[in-house]
Every structure is written in structure tokens, then in C-alpha cells.
Specification:
Strand content: 15-25%
Structural class: alpha/beta
Largest sheet: 8 strands, parallel, barrel
Radius of gyration: 27 Å
Distance between the termini: 48 Å
Helix content: 25-40%
Bound molecules: 3-methyl-2-oxobutanoic acid, zinc ion
CATH topology of the largest domain: TIM Barrel
Shape: elongated
CATH superfamily of the largest domain: Aldolase class I
Number of strands: 18
CATH class of the largest domain: Alpha Beta
Length: about 500
Amino acid sequence: MSEKLWIFDTTLRDGEQVPGCQLNTQEKIIVAKALEDLGVDIIEAGFPISSPGDFNSVIEISKAVTNPIICALSRAVEKDIEVAGAALQYAKKGRIHTGIGVSPYHIQYKLRSTPEDIIQRGVAAVKFAKRFVEDVEFYAEDAGRAEADFLCKIIEEVIKAGATVVNIPDTTGYCLPEQYGAIISSLKNRVPNIDRAIIATHCHNDLGMATANTVAGVQHGARQVEVTINGIGERAGNTSLEEVVMAIKCHQSIPVHTEIVTPKIYHTSRLVSKLMNMPVQPNKAIVGRNAFAHSSGIHQDGVLKHRENYEIIDPKEVGVAESTIVLTARSGRAALKHHLDALGVELEGEALREVYEAFLVLADSKRDVGRKDLLELVGKYIDESNFIELEHVHYSSDGEANARVTLKVGNALQVATATGVGPVDAVLKAIETIVQPQVELEEFLIQAMTQGSDDVAKVHMRLIKSDKPYYGFASNQDIVLASAQAFVDALNKIPVKEYATA
Ligand code: KIV
Ligand code: ZN
């Protein structure tokens, strides 16, 4: 059996420091429970001295979760440590994470101190923290730019003082993987009592190296990784949990395993993104919406023949229902046939060739070919009775929001009204009244294209129907209209047979 790699999640501390990502205590508890379900070993729940809200969150998270160790951050200052200890009073297993800057920058310019004094303060902090909890983690802030002999010395001394985990942060995201790996190796080889503590990585992503550095750290002997969901965190972010976990799962040459329940990754990623109002970039590894989307003809053909031709991870392994074959001008005949089959239109030979040629002409003039377009292309072969068009939208919002929507479904005009918490909610509800698709609206993003008040809103939606994702896109100066158009766009991509069973 390989060695265990401890997963230390700091989404609720380093991740939550990001402007605009702040959560209230209830939301933090929801995230903490999701992290527990995901199988993380340690949850860094906050920095209790920083605010009464953070103090309270650590208390409530400690009560709400059972299995993970709950960790509270502090500086190497007695008052901080005392407050962290108090915040952990209900934790079934509590850890204090204390530390101090160790690079020449931090020692000279931030702390205006000397190396000897820094060692003494680090040691005193660990000893003081031991009065509250047995499990004390020491962080050597900015270790990525520290002087090697000094780093070895302070780590030796804090372990003597009782540190159970020694965290080696690349606080500024400066290191290259080889350098970071060498730092971990030098600690393993030169610190005489290193076997008495676990070495932790804590990497930031300023040069896009956080995952690579973390994996290098593990390859050189680190056995705890400090990570966040979706890689959120200060500046360019922290190491992303999902990337490290899947890199380790994919590469059995790395002699460690984690206890992460990987099929829960995608759900946890969406939950954090939604609660923190932090969209996941479409091309983000593992959890981005394009992570399992194939758009070029050669790749689509390859994936349809055998998934592993172009995928190193089965999407189900991380909780994504299936790969997506996106229809664009670069799609091949296999991809078109795949989509037509889903629409219930089985074309072969000459008929398929004819539709494919028409498809290529259309795809050259459109970024994304949807269900509506396909239905038009194969009109003579099928019944269009389910195709939806947005004819008219009227909404008002005066206290309660009201909407009146006219849709053309097939050839029939249908009207519905609805109320909602806001105009978008009211309009989507009215559309649902007519179409009754029984879908889950899983993701709903509105982005401004520029920054002015006359801006165009770009809406992206992800609907789930029978465990499969369907995407809708639209842009309009009117956010409500753009939302309605994106909803209808996604509904039109759901195969006819799904409506039939709704
Ligand atoms: O990046 C860093 O150095 C930190 C420490 C407080 C652990 O977040
Ligand atoms: Zn950090």
C-alpha cells in the first residue's frame, strides 16, 4: 500500500481572502460539510483573531463536522494563538497553524528583525500553541525565497518545540518545480529530526506553477498538500485540490494515495463557485466547462471511437456526467451523426453526406451550432413539433417581479405568466410553465463584456436533464432578455425524446 497524502483544504481561509468571495457562517458550514463529504483530511476553517465573524465560523464549523481535523490560523503572536485555541474548543480534532516569515524580505522589511529572533519567535509560538492543542502546524512563510541553511535551522528548532507538521509555503508563487522539489529534499536530508513531523506544501500560482510545484514537493517527500477548491486564493490563487488529486491518481509512479472521493469533485467545485460568486474559467483543468468538451473533428472522431484516445480521465471519475461533443465548423461527420442520433434522426450514406455539407456551410457562419440549427438542416427528415422560439417577453418589477412570455412551440403560440423573486426568475418560470422540461438550472453566469452602463450582458447557462448537461448562450443589452434567450437556447439542445418522457 502506498503512503497516505494528507489533503489540507484552505478554501475557507486562503481562498476566502479573495475580494468578493467572502462567505457568511451558514455558507461556510455548507462548504465545510461538502469538504467533509469529499474526504478532505484537514479543513482550515479561518483566522479567528482577524474578525469576530471568522472566530464564530471556526466555532460553528467545529460543531458541524466530525471527521476532518479543524485548523485555525494564527501569527506567531500569543494573543492570536490564544484566540485560535478558544475558537477550536468544540473541534473533535483541532490544530493550530502558526508561523512567521523566513525569507530575507520578510525578516528584514516586513518584520524588521534578525534570523535569531525569528527562530526564537517561531519556537515560542509553537510551545505556546501546545498549551491549547497537541497538533501544531508551523508555517515558514515565504520559504520559497528563504535562505536554505536558515530554513533547515528553523524547521529543526520548531520540530524540537513540538510542531507536528511543518509547512513550507511558496507564498509568492516564485519557485520552479525543480527548485521547490529541491527545497523539500534538502529538508528531508538535512534536518535531523524531520522524521518527527509531516512536511506540507503550500504553493501559490503567480507563475502558474502551483500544481507542478506541489506535485514536485510530494515527489520529494512532502506528505501533506495545502490546496483550495478551483484553486481560488490570494492573487493568482492557491494550488487546486482537484488538479493535485487527479494528477496523483493518474500517475501511479507517485507513491502516495489520497482519500478524496473523486466523483464528488465536480459538485464541490460548482458549490464553491456559486457560493463565492467566483466563475470557474472554461478551460480550467478537471472542472472547467471545456475540460471534457471536444470540438475539432479529429478529436471528436477519436473520442467517439474510443474515449481514451483523447481523454486521460473518465469524466465520471470526477463527477461530470459525460464528455461533450461540440458542433463547430471543425466538427467531422462522426460528431454530426452523434448529435443527430441524439435528436432521434438516424441518417446514413448519401443523406448524411448531404446534411453534413449543409452543416459545414452553416457552421462557418456560426460559432456554435445548436439543436434549432440541426432541426432546420434535417427538417425534411423529422417532426419539428418541439422546437421552441422566444416570441415576446414582458416583465415588470415593483416589489414582486411579474413576467409574461410568449413562446412558439412548433407552430403553436403559447403564453404564460409567472411571478418571481426578480425579473429573471419570473421570466424563466414563465418559460418553464409552457415547456415543462423538468431541468435543473445548475449554472447561470452573467458577464459584462465591457464596463459601461450601456454594456452587453453575456449569459451562460448549464441545464441538467437526465444527468446530462445542456448549455445555453446569449448576449443582449437587456440582462433579462439575454437570460431568457440563453434558457431557450439550452432547452432547444435537449433531445426530442427527453421531452417526450418529461
Ligand atoms: O501563503 C502563505 O504563506 C500562507 C501562510 C499563512 C500559510 O497562506
Ligand atoms: Zn497562502
